[in-house]
Amino acid sequence: MCGIVGYIGNENVYDILIKGLHRLEYRGYDSAGVALVAPDGKLSVYKARGKVSNLESFCADKNLDARAGIAHTRWATHGEPSDKNAHPHFSEDGEIAVVHNGTIENYKVLKDALIAQGCKFHSETDTEVLAQLIEYIRVENQCSLLSAVRKALRQVVGAYAIAVVEKNNPDTIIAARQSSPLVIGIGENEMFLASDATPFVEYTKDVVYLKDGEIAVIQRGKPLKVTNLDNVETGVDVTTLQMSISELEKGGYPHFMLKEIFEQPRTLRDCIRGRVSDDGKRININGINDHKDKFLNCKRIVIVACGTSWHAGLLGRYLIQEMCHIPVVVEYASEFRYSYPVLDENDIVIAISQSGETADTLAAIKIAKSMGAFVFGISNVVGSSIPRETYAGCYIHVGPEIGVASTKAFTGQVMVLTLLALGIAQLRGTKSEDEIRALGEEVLRIPSYVEEVLKLDKEIRRLSLIYTYAHNFLYLGRGYSYPVALEGALKLKEISYIHAEGYPAAEMKHGPIALIDQEMPTVIIAPQDHLYEKIVSNVQQVKARGGNILAIVTEGDSVIRNIADHVLEVPVMPECLTPIITSVPLQLLSYYIAVNKGKDVDMPRNLAKSVTVE
Ligand code: M6R
Hints:
The structure is a single chain. The protein is of the alpha/beta class and 614 residues long. It folds into three domains: 3-247, Aminohydrolase, N-terminal nucleophile (Ntn) domain (Glutamine Phosphoribosylpyrophosphate, subunit 1, domain 1, 4-Layer Sandwich); 250-454, Rossmann fold (3-Layer(aba) Sandwich); 455-614, 3-Layer(aba) Sandwich (Rossmann fold). Strands 3-2-4-1-10-9-11-14 form an eight-stranded antiparallel sheet, with helices on one face. The protein has a six-stranded antiparallel sheet with strand order 5-6-7-8-12-13. Strand 7 and strand 8 (169-178) form a beta hairpin. It is globular, with a radius of gyration of 25 Å.
């Protein structure tokens, strides 16, 4: 939530910052701003409400000549989206400017203390408090900016990734992190900082992921220096970025979301590669191999995640319980810490997060570790906080997901959970060699099945026109198709703003059935599985009440075809592998409905891709 970017070097900083902000816009887009430090030491701050393009228009006639600066794109926490609440924030004397991602929990106490000292505030943000505090300390102590930042951060409770510049010093940026991501790029005679590496991937592959409690001094012409809050050098750990610029472009598609939907055959291949032997017989997951005793002896698995990742987690429960016979519970990470959790060393906690930065999921991990559980992460973003905070894990390897609505990350998560379940079953002997081989062979075919399903694109686009103007949708599924129904409903509501409810199909008659009429379409996920006969009854119940039905069925289905208004067919496959296939048509359906309604598919209102606040 919120994206920050900074640059110091010989290029025009404004162009680099604006390009960087566009790349980070998925993190928040209700206002944006830049602070430029010109070679003569002049500090200029420009901000505008709305997307980064508004900031660009605002800056069109400004003097933007500078070689150092910082910038921010905001997702509001303290104070409404407005010009005055946009970052960067100034100190009262205009000497320093700060950008910040995170929340300062004790900002009120600090603000009251500063007001008592005569400080005046111009915004409602917690960030302005930090800017004023740093400057107050610097003036009071007559100390350097670095020293003032360090002293200020010792007083701060909360999460932050910050970058600070000062007037009259075009050669230095101070950056720091605590529980919010910050990565530094080291180029030739230039350095970058950002919430993730996307703003500078075309300039350098040498990156340093700042750790919690570290402060970086980024100085023109000098090596990067990293210290902790006690001013002890902690070392500079340079790693090589595995990301290419083409992954960050739309590649001819009108939206990232559509590109990401169509990338799924490739992303699933990348996710499976090396984890299933060519003959399907062996499942090879390093995170399991390196901790066999944990997976052999655990008594229970607890999955924690939010949003779409939580839906993937629900599928993980079905997969692991069916294949490994280990009890699994799935918790919203945002509720986990308030549910009086009881865990011990016999539990494995699996934390799932595309971004690897979701604050609630990180908080759940901390609790799980403190209670002695073995914590395993499933994440997409290499070097993000969750892989670093967990004892072992698996990347989903689907490449940067930029559309706010998660698509390829969801199928990647489900794929990893499928492989994990197969791997644990192989280790514990809960599936025979033949059963593992049969499923392994089918897993290898999934990318081709997804290719087949994507051929429904034209038909789904046509159907979307019929369904675009509904105000409410019901999504129903049973067994493995129930989490798919939840995910389908979430996809629709987050990008088209149409109300949609996902329900276990059999629960419909305990309430939601009252909603059914000709105005409310029901999307039913009904592949041929062991619950097929039961879901046929549910389809009939909806039809008997005049409901309009769009059903996802298995190729050759004739029963539901005769009842439903529209059907979309997916290939035949083992029941436990259907979710990846049945979720793809639902992604396309919500995409086209949102496009028909003229919505901003990649940046839906009020949302941000990475939710780094509680
Ligand atoms: O990065 P995470 O997977 O932890 O994010 C969790 C949710 O915020 C995320 O899945 C959200 O629900 C998406 N917008 C869904 O499309």
